[in-house]
């Protein structure tokens, strides 16, 4: 049975709670049948000035767990606001269910938060941080023509530096023929989403379709 274990920052109801409803949000769920803990981060809320400012605040800052590494300031600050509650809950769930797998997921802004959350969790659990057998896998799903994964541009910028993707990319290329078909590439392969000309990028593709389904936001 799938159950929501905890919701951070917003209630899971259709009502207006002002700025809180437009802030970053995390959902923690248990999938007992598959022995799986899922931490899901919500993406950018349309019309949320706070979310849009977070996305646009791409001047880098130090990533304190690792010397010499700099990351997106807006994404990292947003994660740090939620870090104590989310990480504590996930660590506690892991201690109660040591045989469960753990997945961190998110769309857009949520994908960045999920990445920071996964790294933070591994560092907070000694038996994971010191275990060479632990496997971390990062996968990005990108629809052909989505401009957002191309930001900031892959060129060095003053006060910003050079951004790079990491992990695997699942590239959905043939939306008209088969929206469920994808090709797997590593990091920033020039044959994947990076190959699409700028003139063919459309914001509508940021919401999908991902394997036939589109993301929609309902408060």
Automatic annotation (TrEMBL):
Lineage: Eukaryota, Fungi, Fungi incertae sedis, Mucoromycota, Glomeromycotina
GO term, biological process aspect, one: lipid metabolic process
Keyword flag Hydrolase: yes
InterPro entries: AB_hydrolase_fold (IPR029058), Fungal_lipase-type (IPR002921), Sec_MonoDiacylglyc_Lipase (IPR051218)
One GO MF term: hydrolase activity
Domain Fungal lipase-type stretches: 39-130
A Pfam family the protein falls into: Lipase_3
UniProt KW keywords: Hydrolase
CDD domains: Lipase_3 (cd00519)
The UniProt record lists the keyword Glycoprotein: no
Protein name: Alpha/beta-hydrolase
SUPFAM superfamilies to which the protein is assigned, alphabetical: alpha/beta-Hydrolases
Native species: Rhizophagus irregularis
